[in-house]
Amino acid sequence: MSHDALRGVGPVPGTEARAAPEVEQLLRQVEPEYSYRTLRGTWAAAFSLIAVAMALFHIYTARFGTLEALRQRSVHLAFALVLVFLLYPFRRRHAAGGRIGLPDLAMVAAALAPLVYLFANQAELTLRAGSLSRLDFAMGVLGVLVVLEAGRRMMAIVPLIAALALVYPFLGPYLPGPLAVARISPERVIEQMFYTTEGVFGIPIGVSATFVFLFVLLGAFLEKTGLGQLFVDVALALAGWMTGGPAKVSVLSSAFIGTVSGSSVANVVADGVFNIPLMKRLGYGARFAAGVEAATSVGGQIVPPVMGAAAFVMAEFLGVPYLTIAKAAAIPAALFYLSLGFIIHFEAKRLGLVGLPRAELPSLWRVLARRAYLVVPLVVLVGFLLHGASPMRAAYWGIMVAAGVHLVTCVLERRPLAWPREIWDILIHGSRLALPVAVATAVVGIFIGIVTLSGLGLAFVSLTVTLGQNNLFLTLVWVMVACTIVGSGIPTTATYIILAAIAAPALMQMGVPALAAHMFIFYFGVIADVTPPDALAAYAAAGIAKTDPFRTGLTATRLALAGILVPYMFVYSPTILLQGGETADIVLTVVTASVGVVALAGAVAGYLLTTATWPERALLGVTAVALIFHDLRADAVGLVLLSAVAAAQTLRRRRSRPRPVSEGAGTR
């Protein structure tokens, strides 16, 4: 949120002075990937050159064609590992210093050696598949180890999961029941992990090396051009004056920003530093304000057209165009934000909160007249996707147009000579932002490779179905719990990839359509960012609001309840994903689900037409379930219950109104 947008709103003590350092500090606290060195001098120049080279490599291959799969992915990973070992220290507490020592340079060399070896000898390695030489084996072991070390420097749990998976083929013969597996030789494990597209260089990093990097780079361009700021100002103009205005601004701005950003924590710190103090100033409790920011920011990952790396991986796993995933996500995302908007509205009505005076808000038409051109790259991106272009081609042209738009901005601001330097900085920033995804997908590829090689996935399918007692609903609950546990402290992309390998097949075995099964897992991987005990987005928001992180996570979970119920619709009402069904059926499903999430908001906030009693809240909850899970009989029951609650509240409001004093009353 710009300081211009805050002008006249009233003081938020110390916000301007502390915004930037507070954001930096919060990111370092809640996200290990932000615990990086501040490089200076020669090392900063070296890092910049490598980062720009990485960005230009991906732009070039997007325009003129990618290399063979293993070579494209090995170059992508080589760039990423070199940058990681330069940027991230061996121990996080050393991140404050910018000094790079011999151990870091040794890790750079250790990372380059196996990847250069793979790139240079790919043809020969393919010919002698199944019979690795000693040098092949040694290079493969080194390659796997440096990937795990890079993951350890950036993440906490994912490398540990991958390391445990690597041990499984050797312990498998001694395990009981369905987890038992025949012993697999170390040579076969290393070949699978490092010399095929079934391990480190599997589908996940393939997506990172093509689509994801370009979309991350496009996001960096759009951030620099000021599109995010435009979204925040538009949200202020549209919703700032409404009941509980600042909280609704958070909903709108997070939804808008979510169209180009796939990081919930980044969304929290981008506008939470300003939105949360504004919400507190208008009367919202600190925990509620932080919960709103966390819930709305997490929702940004499910908003098309850019939904984070996991959505691109999903498209590759399912073998469908990315546009299919984006279309399927549109209605559920709208329901999620509709629920949040009404919860905030009802909470504001219950507390008697008002919006900001219109005179203190930016003018929508003035904002659009001055900066509407900033949306052009996003329009180009969506246009290419709608016309059937690949995500890679669409992102490439979006980047080209964004660079041109930024030139226009520099000219309008009378600083055209700053454009080359700022483009250089954007390329560096984009490459750095892509590192977590590149490393996470490489590390998770180890887990996927072991699952494929050992048949571990079949064991998990059998176990999941057994725990669910062959009951679809119980199986869905088990998968939801697994997603929440695995997703605690793990990036959404890694959570999705792990669960897609071991849980999605169990759902599909029980008759759930593939897209619905994968979207179910994706949603709960996203929601894990606000559910305790390790709710990263909620903890970031709590740090800004100066409130208890755990209780903020509980509040954010309550606010994001629609995100917990809506995924069940994917299974029981797949028309919500625009999969099959007549147009009339889709419209009816959307209408009843919309009414259902409004009822859900009333149950959560304890307000519909007036403050709700506990029995009324319970009835609203039952109404929500009945309407969200589309069935004509259930819909009828839901509408009857909603009408009963509305009638009871209307009657109570009329009785509580003071009666007008009749003329002459009080005289004799």
Set out the fold topology.
Elements lengths: L2 H4 L8 H16 L10 H24 L4 H19 L14 H19 L1 H6 L6 H21 L3 H14 L14 H9 L8 H23 L1 H13 L5 H14 L5 H19 L3 H14 L9 H10 L3 H30 L12 H8 L4 H11 L4 H22 L6 H36 L1 H12 L4 H15 L5 H11 L1 H6 L4 H14 L8 H10 L3 H11 L1 H12 L10 H23 L8 H15 L3 H25 L12
Helix pairs in contact: 2-13, 2-26, 3-4, 3-10, 3-20, 4-5, 4-10, 4-20, 5-7, 7-8, 7-9, 7-20, 8-20, 10-15, 10-19, 10-20, 11-12, 11-17, 12-13, 12-14, 12-16, 13-14, 13-26, 14-16, 14-26, 14-27, 15-16, 15-23, 15-25, 16-28, 16-29, 18-19, 20-23, 22-23, 22-25, 23-25, 25-28, 26-27, 29-30, 30-31
Helix content: over 70%
Derived from helix and strand composition plus strand pairing, the structural class reads mainly alpha
Q: What is the global morphology? A: globular
The total count of strands amounts to: 0
**Number of helical stretches of at least 4 residues:** 31
Largest sheet: none
Uncertain residue segments: 1-20, 663-668
